[in-house]
Design brief:
This protein has 364 residues and is of the alpha+beta class. It is built from 10 helices and 9 strands. This is Phosphotransferase family protein.
Length: 364
Amino acid sequence: MNPTADVHTRQEYGSSADSGDGLGAGRIREWLADAETRPVGEELRTRLIAGGRSNPTYELSDGDRAWILRRPPVGHVLPTAHDMSREYRALTALYGSAVPVPRTVGLCEDTALIGAPFYVMDKLDGITLRTAEDTGRLTPTQRAALAETMVQTLAALHEVDPADVGLDDWGRPDGYLERQLRRWQRQWESSATAPRPEVDELQARLAASVPESRYPGIVHGDFKIDNLMVAADDPTHILGVLDWEMSTLGDTLTDLGILCSFWDQQGEFHNPITAGATALPGFPSRDELVHAYVQARGIDVPDIDWYLVFADFKIAVILEGIHARHTQGHTAGDDFTGIGDMVGPLLNRALDRASHSSVPGLAG
């Protein structure tokens, strides 16, 4: 029996709408026909995909083939966030590399077509594992193998020479961590819906303990289990790494921090987004995950606590921005209610980690 047979595909989460989603199937079809290298059918159906809490995502289908369209959210958007050209370029550059990504079709920066810039890529025929219910359908052996594949994929990304894929001008690794702290402080200030003194405390502690960046490279920015598409018949095989909107050149250990922040363990606080997806037998511990990554790259990871604390802080700021858009009525889909409740627990976990850390300056 296929243990993933009942797991929804990424494209089937939540409610959907046909042609009433504001895209305008006729306009999109004309653009797609010009951008594609192969003929597109005369009738194109569009469907809003619920499930992502950031960029609205749509499935396009002509009855024979299917594509994915990504656009920025409506309404309040944090400065520098949701850059479609950035996500498109990263996917295009990495296609055919050691990092699995879908083929891109085209980028449209003319906002007259659907009211925002967008890009289109191939739809991957796989599944996404979002919750403990999803990963619970895997065997312990499959969970262990998937974790190993995830670590190997992340290490492969970080070993890609940016110049080899045309991304040598993708960002500035020097001073990356300091700029990240300033950026997320500004993001918080532009979207905060309520005062939280723990934000100021975390900012001060992180700024006082910024580690030296020793491993620059391509950073995904949001590497976690539900940003991967895996094969339905072999959930240990990753078909594609998705959601590259925060990718850049920087300190690659920030990706390890994000992965660990979302890596839930039994008996511990679960990240509200993944809600225990990896807190099941077969999945390695967080420490084992770090060890596997270190072994894959042949490096050491000093000051790992800093990266874990920063990851929780960053995710909390992102969720506050999503919460702000939701309260203004600018989110698409039905899975946003209560997302603001996720911010406090993440900030509290970050403060707890910082207070018990041996990293100089982080404990306060």
